[in-house]
Amino acid sequence: MSHKHHPKEARIRAVQQQDGGRPASEICKEMNITPGTLKRWRDQLHLLAPSDAALIREQEKMIEHMARVLLEAMIREQAQPENVRSDNGSEFIAETVQEFMAANGIKTLYIDPGCPWQNGVIESYNSCFRREFADRWWFHNYDDIAVAMGDWLWDYNRYRPNGSLGFKTPYEYAGKPIDRRAHLLTLVAA
Predict the structure, then answer these.
(1) What's the pLDDT tens digit per position in 66-85?
(2) Is 129 in contact with 157 (CB distance < 8 Å)?
């Protein structure tokens, strides 16, 4: 029997029953469909399997942790900001990040939804962070994130050429000597 004979609500209910633990074989027998049809319905409806949803929740927790580690590093290496301006992304509306900021007396300023130009500098940084760090690596635990992020921040803040500085590194711009060969060897050795 094709899915044309099953209304969308019935297809959604079938997938949800499977997610709830009902065996696929029972669902398929009751609806007179094949297991392949049930899987196709899930794909067509863009529904996640419970294991996928759990993985996404775990990744969201890791992103929250990365945001907190970044804030901690900023406070440790520079100075505590009075406020943090951000979009309404899940990493900044997360309860743990909000609690950390409140405990450290940091106010939250949100940009208007759909207006990234209100925070252009950080949007540029976020793009770079995602492209050069977050999208390139797979982390197994929070310690991996902290170590890798520390290395990336060190490189970004000292040795990475910056367009707003005339494509000089922050160290070159500040007039400090830089030995790129030693730095590259450190990155390779790590």
Answers:
(1) 777 777 887 777 778 888 77
(2) no
Average pLDDT over residues 100-111: 84
Dump the DSSP string for 144-171. HHHHHHHHHHHHHHHTS-BGGGTSB-HH
Give CA–CA dist 183/155, Å, rounded. 9
What is the Cα–Cα distance from 129 to 158, expressed in whole angstroms? 15
The enclosing H or E element of 174 equals: none
Indicate whether this model's pTM tops 0.85. no
Q: How many residues does the chain have?
A: 190
Is residue 35 predicted with pLDDT exceeding 70?
Answer: yes
Q: Which CATH architecture has domain 56-137?
A: 2-Layer Sandwich (3.30)
At 83, list the tokens.
Answer: 């406020």
Which amino acid is located at 49 in the chain?
A
The answer to whether 42 touches 15, Cβ cutoff 8 Å, is yes
User: Could you tell me the residue ranges of all domains in the chain?
Assistant: 3-47, 56-137
Nearest to 90 by CA among 115, 123, 122, 66: 66
